[in-house]
Amino acid sequence: MLTTDTLSQVFTSVSAVMTSNRDYLVRLDQVGGDGDLGVSMDDGFAAVASFLGSSAPTDLGQAFRQGRGSSTRPRRPPWGRSSASASWGWPGPCGD
Questions:
Q1: pTM higher than 0.85 for the full model?
Q2: Burial class of residue 48 in the structure, from the number of CB atoms within 10 Å of its CB (0-12 exposed, 13-18 middle, 19+ buried)
Q3: Are 67 and 74 in contact (CB under 8 A)?
Q4: Among 7, 16, 23, 69, which one has the highest count of C-beta atoms within 10 angstroms of its own C-beta?
Q5: Quick check: 36 and 29 in contact, CB under 8 A?
């Protein structure tokens, strides 16, 4: 069963991997992008791990609602533009 404790352990583990690979991901992204992938992944996973490890509610649904912030519009998904993000109205990289 998925709980906030289990999710916290997962994000803490992934966060450690992102931290150790931060520079590598930056170098990869510099080849065809803006070079911020390692920074974004490290910071993002660390923030979620910190949230889940601190004052997150034990109810998983409440944790998801609190963790997404105060915006009423869904935020851009971490996986980038996809058919799902297009159907949710998120703009693509060129604003499309």
A1: no
A2: buried
A3: no
A4: 7
A5: yes
How far are the Cα atoms of 39, 59, 71, 73, 94 from residue 65, in angstroms, in the given order? Answer: 25, 10, 10, 12, 29
Dist CA 62 CA 89 (whole Å): 24
Token pair recorded at residue 68: 């997404």
What is the C-alpha to C-alpha distance for residues 21 and 29, in angstroms, rounded to an integer? 12
What is the spatial distance between Cα 72 and Cα 89, in angstroms, rounded to a whole number?
14
pLDDT (tens, 9 = 90+) of the chain, 96 residues, equals: 888 889 899 999 999 999 999 999 999 999 999 999 999 999 999 998 888 888 767 888 888 888 775 334 445 545 454 444 454 454 555 554
